[in-house]
């Protein structure tokens, strides 16, 4: 169960309370507040708090650039200009705080984004629940033969069953030993901060994660990408849906220029110019490595 009965009771209570405010609020985001959205088998995300909206981005930009923005006719146009020209500070005026429940190995990837404030559930003071991420059969892949950090084809039949059984039995065996070490009857037991080291990386943890919109967009650009690991990508996808309701103009520009856009090197642009002139360009004549050429072809859909 992603949300415990106690957590659901807290959510229900929080959603019955309202407070008058003079600060900007966003109806779409108010609808998301405190709700838990399931991710993976036991995980979730939920919005705890937020600050700012699309207009806060424009307000900050106009303070920064003054008369330089007078030619921009509307807020959406200004936001698209800022995104297009990689202006970052106006997007830092918006912040979001999320409560996330996720497997430890996903958390280790996530924490590489060091531009956020994080407070994680402490296994030094509390006992972790017996909840492990076990991949669904349609996400049980072999190692890719062309990408050292990617997945290949699906495991099937007896091989898939064998791997799933190992994952389940190892997880439960490690947790059994964890419980025995900290609570053997008649003995003091091992300190929780030591006993936790025996737990597998697929056990679930929880944290509060607060980040500004500029750095959140950077997170989403990398983690909502089709090449990102599935287990973190589904969290990025869930967060993206919330952000689209929070700052629709900014998210639309981000989707257009970052998620759906491509950054080209000088060499790649030169190849495009040559192609437009009718020249046949190959990897050998492009000036690119095989890897660069392959990525270039994907970007221009050749």
TrEMBL record:
Among InterPro entries, the record links this protein to: Thymidylate_synthase_ThyX (IPR003669), Thymidylate_synthase_ThyX_sf (IPR036098)
Please tell me which top-level EC class this enzyme sits in: transferase
Required co-factor(s) are: FAD
Q: Where does FAD bind?
A: 89, 112-114, 120, 212-214, 218
Q: Which residues form the signal peptide?
A: none
Q: Which family does it belong to?
A: Belongs to the thymidylate synthase ThyX family.
Q: What function does the entry list? A: Catalyzes the reductive methylation of 2'-deoxyuridine-5'-monophosphate (dUMP) to 2'-deoxythymidine-5'-monophosphate (dTMP) while utilizing 5,10-methylenetetrahydrofolate (mTHF) as the methyl donor, and NADPH and FADH(2) as the reductant.
Supply the HAMAP family for this chain.
ThyX
This protein's name: Flavin-dependent thymidylate synthase
Tell me the organism: Sulfitobacter noctilucicola
């Amino acid at each position: 169960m992603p949300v415990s009965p106690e957590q659901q009771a807290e959510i229900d209570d929080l959603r019955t309370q309202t407070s008058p405010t003079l600060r900007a609020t966003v109806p779409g985001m108010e609808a998301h507040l405190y709700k838990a959205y399931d991710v993976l088998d036991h995980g979730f995300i939920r919005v705890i708090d937020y600050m700012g909206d699309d207009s806060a981005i424009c307000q900050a930009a106009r303070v920064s650039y003054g008369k330089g923005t007078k030619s921009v006719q509307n807020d959406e146009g200004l936001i698209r200009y800022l995104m297009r020209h990689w202006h970052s500070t106006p997007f830092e005026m918006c912040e979001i705080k999320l409560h996330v429940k996720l497997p430890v190995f996903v958390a280790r990837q996530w924490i590489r984004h060091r531009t956020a404030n994080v407070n994680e559930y402490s296994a030094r003071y509390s006992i972790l629940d017996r909840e492990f991420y076990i991949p669904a059969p349609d996400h049980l892949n072999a190692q890719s033969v062309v990408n050292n950090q990617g997945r290949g084809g699906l495991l099937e039949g007896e091989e898939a069953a064998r791997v799933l059984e190992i994952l389940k039995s190892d997880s439960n065996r490690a947790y059994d030993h964890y419980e025995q070490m900290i609570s053997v009857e008649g003995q003091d037991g091992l300190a929780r901060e030591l006993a936790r080291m025996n737990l597998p990386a697929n056990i679930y943890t929880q944290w509060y994660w607060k980040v500004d919109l500029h750095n959140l967009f950077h997170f989403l650009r990398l983690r909502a990408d089709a090449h990102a690991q599935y287990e973190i990508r589904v969290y990025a996808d869930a967060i993206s849906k919330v952000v689209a309701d929070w700052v629709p103009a900014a998210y639309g520009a981000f989707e257009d220029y970052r998620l759906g856009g491509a950054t080209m090197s000088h060499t790649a642009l030169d190849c495009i110019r040559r192609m437009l002139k009718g020249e046949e360009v190959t990897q050998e004549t492009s000036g690119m490595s095989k890897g660069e050429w392959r990525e270039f072809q994907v970007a221009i859909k050749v």
